[in-house]
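User: Predict the structure for this protein chain, please.
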Amino acid sequence: MKAAERQLRIRQMLEARDFVDIETLCRELEASESSVRRDLDLLETAKVLRRVYGGAVSQQQQPKVFEAPAEAVHQATEKDRIARLTASLIHDGQTVLLDGGSTVAAVARELAVKSLHIVTNSLPIAERLESLRNIELTLTGGYLDPRHRVLLGPFCEQMLSGIRADVVIMGIGGISEAGFTNNNTLVVGSEQKMIEVAARTIIVADHTKFGRGGMIPVAPLSAASVVVTDSDIAPEHVELLRSQGVEVLLA
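Assistant: Here is the predicted structure, written as structure tokens:
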């Protein structure tokens, strides 16, 4: 197949899927990886697509980009690394619960190239993913917290009680020997329910969340399957988590 034919076929594939990965392109185009990468570079220059990790997304129908809250700027580099590493743990076809917060929002951005069913109580995350054809999106319902733009309370928890998820990805207010904690009663209620209905819990938190506790307990450290954090975490916090059977991944 000539280069022009391959590039036309890539355009057609993106019209149908929004995202295509390198492996699929090589297989369907019967072309080498180097040829496919050259085609993607040319199409990106022509603003047909945007290169992302593992493949490309359509430039013709970009997903909405939500305004990052002011606190999202804090520890932005660490959160981006945490988000990329966390997204690598998620596989196509899974049902994923996403909590609110800036770190989880960064993870949602990385998950936008996968084929997933995502359930969230976060309006910013929902706005980020709503236009993607490869994402099935469900909002929990509940009381809208106008400050954090998340849905909380009894209706949210009731909805969560009726589902089962492969994994929950959750930010947290504080991590200490006492466990995972937060300061908002309604937030804690929804977080506890998410942990209850998910087969696996991934906590995402930069190093500043360690060694400090919130007012309300969310769960013991052993409730987490994995904690993804940055390399500035103190060694004693890593040892504490591992002593509770928690896998610690450093981004």
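The mean pLDDT is 89.
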